[in-house]
Amino acid sequence: MLNRLAVLVLFLLLSALVIPAHLLAQSNEKPAAAKPQGTEINPHDLSGVWNLHMPQTARRYIGNTFSADEPSLTPWAEEKYKATKPSNGPRTHSLQETDDPVLKSCLPPGVPRIYLQPFPVQIVQTPKEVVMLFEYDHIVRHIFVDGRQHPADVTPTYMGHSIGHWDADTLVVDTAGFNDKTWLDRTGHPHSEELRVVERFRRTAADAMQVDITMEDAKALAKPWTSQLVFQLRPQWDIMEQVCTDNENFLGFEK
Amino acid sequence: MNPRLVTFPMIALLTLAAAGSARAHHGAAVYDTAKTVTVKGTVTDFQFTNPHVLIYIDSKDESGNVQKWQGELTSPNHLARAGWTKSTVKVGDQVTLTGNPSKSGATNLWLRKVAGPNGDIATGGGEN
């Protein structure tokens, strides 16, 4: 009886030793199944062709503007806004009547309005800059990540001067030096040369990128205007040609 | 029957799935987005170019009079990603155009659907 008990105890003790060893051996011989291709994310790699892919709740406004609610405008901006003649949105005008600088004159859309032009964007990264190649009218943004600051006496431009730095897994981009010849969106919200736009780019999945945008403009915005954009990676897409000024035929068509 | 029209590629619904696509379209002022019109005819011109693809057709009414209709689609860039090429529609093709009519009464459409003679559908329009 004691022998059997002893044997049983011995057996249990040995089992306790053997089984973990067996499991260890297993884990050494057979590594965990490799993750499906494409699920590894390098958060500092934003390269590729991205297309805006908003959640359903955002689709009712994202064709024209950045939020469901109106931004908080200063009185100065409110006056300018009322006087604009957009073609997009509820206050729609025909292409012949509109004073939308993009539709009327094919001027660059500015930032962040460029994201509302419904075409994809390709991001290319070099050590010195993150380059954004927009399909819409071949607009290009250079985001300098070489540590430089904005020029002290910047020449105002349509797309502004952009500098960026990495904050952990987020690329923080600061853009200033805008001229005032663009609209903030497609419905006519104006801005001044004081506009400053901060974008935070974060790769949230192998095929997804989130961009948090903050617009500030002491002259035009009573409060910062924020928005969140979501992009989907499109590995099969190439950027194609799209020429805004090639529109004579179209303008003649819509009467 | 034109066998080539059988291969009208389906446009991914994403071109129409952008909710509020009516409001996302510039120049929506000229179209009555509350109405839909369907016109059958023979293609006289197909312009697969930016900013908008254009289809021109001759359509015969009941009396046999020819009416010229024109329909606009979205950018060829979007259509190309759904399989369209500059040869997808050809002069002489029999098509049915469905879309929102012009408020002015001009025979222009903002296209919602383009169909070949066998009912093969390509859905278009959407935002620009």
How would you describe what is shown here?
The complex is a heterodimer of chains A (255) and B (128). The longest helix of chain A is centred in the N-terminal third of the chain and has 28 residues, at 2-29. Chain A has a 9-stranded mixed β-barrel with strand order 1-2-3-4-5-6-7-8-9. By secondary structure, chain A is an alpha+beta fold. Chain A has one domain (48-243). In chain A, a hairpin with an 8-residue loop joins strand 8 and strand 9. Chain A contains 4 helices and 9 strands, in the order αβααββββββββα. The termini of chain A are far apart. Chain B is mostly beta strands and 128 residues long. Chain B has one domain: Nucleic acid-binding proteins (OB fold (Dihydrolipoamide Acetyltransferase, E2P), Beta Barrel). Chain B is 11% helix and 34% strand. Chain B has a 5-stranded mixed beta barrel. In chain B, strand 5 (108-115) and strand 6 (121-123) form a beta hairpin. Chain B is globular and about 40 Å long. Chain B starts with 13 loop residues before the first helix and ends in a 5-residue tail after the last strand. Mean pLDDT of chain B is 78; it is low at 1-7, 9-23 and 124-128. The A-B interface holds A 56, 59-61, 63-64, 87-90, 92-95, 97-98, 100, 103, 118-119, 135, 186, 237, 240-244, 246-247, 249-250, 253-255 and B 17-21, 23-30, 47, 49-52, 54, 70, 72, 75, 77-78, 80-81, 102, 104, 106, 108, 127-128.
